[in-house]
Amino acid sequence: xxxxxxxxxxxxxxxxxxxxxxxxxxxxxxxxxxxxxxxxxxxxxxxxxxxxxxxxxxxxxxxxxxxxxxxxxxxxxxxxxxxxxxxxxxxxxxxxxxxxxxxxxxxxxxxxxxxxxxxxxxxxxxxxxxxxxxxxxxxxxxxxxxxxxxxxxxxxxxxxxxxxxxxxxxxxxxxxxxxxxxxxxxxxxxxxxxxxxxxxxxxxxxxxxxxxxxxxxxxxxxxxxxxxxxxxxxxxxxxxxxxxxxxxxxxxxxxxxxxxxxxxxxxxxxxxxxxxxxxxxxxxxxxxxxxxxxxxxxxxxxxxxxxxxxxxxxxxxxxxxxxxxxxxxxxxxxxxxxxxxxxxxxxxxxx
Length: 351
Description:
Elements: H1 6-9, E1 32-34, H2 36-41, E2 47-52, H3 62-75, E3 80-84, H4 88-100, E4 103-109, H5 115-123, E5 127-131, H6 135-148, E6 152-153, H7 159-165, H8 167-176, E7 182-186, H9 191-207, E8 213-219, H10 224-227, H11 249-259, E9 262-266, H12 268-282, H13 292-302, E10 312-317, H14 326-329, H15 342-350
Parallel strand pairs: 2-10, 3-4, 3-6, 4-5, 7-8, 7-10, 8-9
Antiparallel strand pairs: 1-2
Helix pairs in contact: 3-4, 3-7, 4-5, 7-9, 8-9, 9-11, 12-13
């Protein structure tokens, strides 16, 4: 049977209203890639996998939740959807709105969105507005306008987003035949960690599978869940998790606690190092925020707080490297120039 997207594959497990009308780009079904070289670099003697969500249609995990949110809105004959975004939600909302024939409006924090993500939203036809403030200011505005006008809010506070996003947990269990011992993932607005935990618990009750421990990872400059209070001016190179007031923060903390895991913070340097490791050792290029899970795992192993021996560990990489290519291109020197002659090529690569 041809693959029909996450709503079709897991329809019996999703709590969506009867009026839902599927809007899909055949999202989901992303690979769970064994990462043996990376495991060896971290000490070896354990199973390590990368859930590569950057291979969703718009290049990030957001498509899972967006197909559910837009499908529910389409069933209500909504004409316009809106979201606040640091980039990935914007591209996803715009693409699915285009697919559904709806208008999309995107609010972004001024000067704080990677060009690759902004380009996606524009390409899909969204009306993009820059807010003179943070992501949290933008989210406050979209909530307020949706309370006043018949516009559908499709940020992760929309409950149907969580329904779609939890399908990634189902896919991991289906691929492994069990849940992993640990799941490591970035935490920004905290919808994804909340969704994964909901999915794992649902599969646990349905199939009597084990439950994983969750390691949620924030950037040190945007770590309200680690600090225990909002961050008014979050700053990190990992733009996708540059959020100071996570909408589902309490749910994320509860998920980590229930799982026996935790939420930690790592430096930007650690995140960029993990990004380079993923690409150089496994051929997986991700945007900086997507490398936070690996950075967190490496930190916990090095500190002795997590012993990976004999464990199965999944790292969730949430977005493709093309979402934020400037991080790489701005740091590299111009490639060496050679004349179109064989001896020059030999000198450049063999000397």
